[in-house]
Write a structure and sequence with these properties.
This protein is of the alpha/beta class. The chain has two domains: 36 residues; 155 residues, UDP N-Acetylglucosamine Acyltransferase, domain 1, CATH 2.160.10.10. The chain is 25% helix and 27% strand. The protein contains three helices and 22 strands. The strands form five sheets. The protein has a seven-stranded mixed beta sheet with strand order 5-8-11-16-19-21-22. Strands 3-6-9-12-17-20 form a six-stranded mixed beta sheet, with no helix packed on it. The chain has a five-stranded parallel beta sheet with strand order 4-7-10-15-18, with helices on one face. Strand 1 and strand 2 form a beta hairpin. Helix 1 packs across helix 2. The radius of gyration is 25 Å and the shape is flat. The N and C termini lie far apart (63 Å). The relative contact order is 0.08.
Amino acid sequence: MKCKLGNPEILLLEASPNHRQEEHKMTRMQSYVRRMLVFLLKSLVILAFKIIGPPRILHFGRLINKALLKAFGAKIGENSIIHSPIVLHRSENGYANLIIGDHCLINSNIFLDLTSRIILENGVSLGPGVTIMTHNRYNFNAFLEKHLAHTCGKKDVVIKEGAGIKAGALIIHGITIGRNAVVGGNAVVNRDVPGNCFVAGVPARLIKEIK
C-alpha cells in the first residue's frame, strides 16, 4: 500500500497472507527435516552399537544419549535431560541397572557404576562430576579384602524424588538419599541421608534440616 509521509512519498510493504502462509509452510518443513535427520542419526548410531556392543562412555547429544540408554535396557521417564560425557561402568551387558524417573537432570562428567541398580526417582538432579558407586573392591588385594570385608560387596543406590546431588559428590554403594535432600559439592556420602536435609563434608554429615 502507499501513503504520503511528508515529501517524498514512502512505500510501505506489508506481508501478504499468501506470503505468511509460505513462511509458515517453510518453517514446518524445516522442523520436519530436522526431526527426520535426528531420527536417522539415532537409528544409525543405535545400529552401529548393536553390532559392537553398548558404549562405556556416552558423548553424544541429549536425544541420542537417551535413545542409546533405552536401546540397551535403561528405563528413562519423560522430560529427563542427560548431558555428555557420562561413564557407565560395568555396562558391557547393557544398562538395565539404570532407572531414571521423570524430569531428572544429569549433568556432564558423571560416573555411574552399574554393577547393581542405580534408581533416580522423579526430579532428581546430578551436578557435574558426580560419582555413584554400587560396588566396592580393593583391586582383589587379599589383605585389604580380608580386613575390610565389611566395606566390600555390591548394593543398589536409591536417590529419592526431588533430591539434588551437587558437583563432585561421591555416593557409596548401598546408600539411599531421601526425598528433597541436598548433598553438598564434593561430599562423600557413606550413610543414608534423611529426606528434607542438607548434608556436606567428608564424610557427609547433617548441616541442617530443610523446612
